[in-house]
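I would love for you to help me understand the pair of lines that follows before we discuss the fold together.
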Amino acid sequence: MKKTIAAILAIISFFTTSCSTTHYGSAFPNLAGNWTMGGRINAGKPCLILQSGNYLTFVNEGGNKSRGILKDKSEVIALDWEDGLSGILTDGATRINWKNGTWWLKGE
């Protein structure tokens, strides 16, 4: 009986740790904060990302908002822009290279 209880506790501990790390722990970078628009148009204008776990809110240089997700450690998706505009995180998650050719820089 003691071995069964110990095995159950070990399984629960494993899944609790795995789930919390995967969704809200160090697996996802912290993107929250001020960003700056890059590209040929509107370069240098302020942008913003709000973050709760892997759920994001993007505010672009024009003040337009989009719900978003952090798909994994290297990709974000702005769900309400351009039918789901995706961006690739680079430079230690301080740059987002958007699929439309623009980019954002963190803390600029």
The chain has a mean pLDDT of 84. Residues 2-23 form the longest helix (22 residues).
